[in-house]
Specification:
- The chain has about 260 residues and is of the alpha/beta class.
- The chain contains eleven helices and eleven strands.
- The strands form two sheets. Strands 3-2-1-4-9-6-10 form a seven-stranded mixed β-sheet, sandwiched between helices. The chain has a four-stranded mixed β-sheet with strand order 5-11-7-8.
- Helix 2 runs parallel beside helix 3 and helix 6 packs antiparallel against helix 9.
- The termini are far apart.
């Protein structure tokens, strides 16, 4: 099959976007885990979202050692939300695939290699992939495993049904084909849904016939739980975005 040979000849590039906001405690571990991937064709873009701590200085130090790191910035418009920073990263990316990792998370050095071998096993079919994540909980000074979080569904219909009860996607683990971005399908609505805008994005993707493949095994993604993370702060906003999103799509899908 000629297209298979083409994929083998040119290793597709993956862009990893790291939106950063007051991440001085974690950013070095996160950035280095992305920069040191065993997969060869990786572009790492860190986008600062108006941090007031030492995040930008730490990124500068990392760039001295790893000049391939791309650093940019974006205005912090929507609270508890990485969309402005991600949008800037998407604008700058040159990859064939793209993922966005939280600046407080990190990945095993073979994570991208493993994910890409899954995606490239059927590049015409798999345009989006999610993997299980390992929660890391703070115990004193250390972070320890808090178990694996994963989602399972077999079809677009099953995915839609799940979307009407909860968000069935591990957001930071999703790898997309960049063509989804170029076709306008990765646009989010943070002005409407704040930090929950990704949940609405997944509903919109399945509405546009894009299936996010749920890989059943953990491939090396570590998701850190801590009091400062945006997820908790969204819950403190006293606005139930989930219910709003579910209502919108229930009405649209007439389910």
């Amino acid at each position: 099959h000629p297209s298979d040979t083409a994929w083998m000849m040119k290793e597709p590039k993956i862009t990893i976007i790291i939106p950063c906001y007051n991440s001085e405690k974690w950013i070095e571990q996160c950035a280095m885990s992305c920069l040191n991937q065993t997969y060869e064709s990786v572009e790492v873009i860190a986008v600062d979202n108006e941090s007031s701590d030492k995040t930008v200085a730490i990124l500068g130090d990392i760039k001295k050692k790893s000049p391939e790191l791309i650093i940019s910035s974006a205005k912090n418009i929507y609270p508890n939300c990485w969309d402005e920073a991600r949008e800037e990263g998407l604008r700058l990316m040159t990859g064939d695939y793209v993922m966005t990792i939280g600046s407080d998370d990190y990945i095993d050095l073979e994570y991208v290699d493993k994910c890409m071998s899954v995606m490239l096993s059927a590049p015409d079919k798999i345009k989006a992939l999610q993997t299980p994540i390992q929660g890391m909980q703070q115990r004193g000074e250390e972070f320890v495993s808090a178990g694996i979080i994963q989602h399972s569904y077999k079809s677009k219909e099953q995915f839609k049904k799940l979307c009407l009860t909860k968000c069935p996607v591990n957001t930071p683990s999703v790898i997309y084909s960049a063509e989804l971005y170029h076709n306008g399908l990765l646009k989010t609505k943070p002005e409407v849904y704040g930090g929950a805008a990704d949940y609405d994005l997944y509903c919109n993707l399945v509405d546009n016939d894009v299936f996010i493949y749920p890989f059943p095994q953990w491939l090396g993604f570590y998701y850190r739980w801590h009091p400062d993370q945006a997820t908790w702060n969204v819950h403190k906003e006293n606005r139930n975005y989930d219910v709003e999103i579910q209502k919108y799509w229930r009405d649209k899908w007439k389910m």
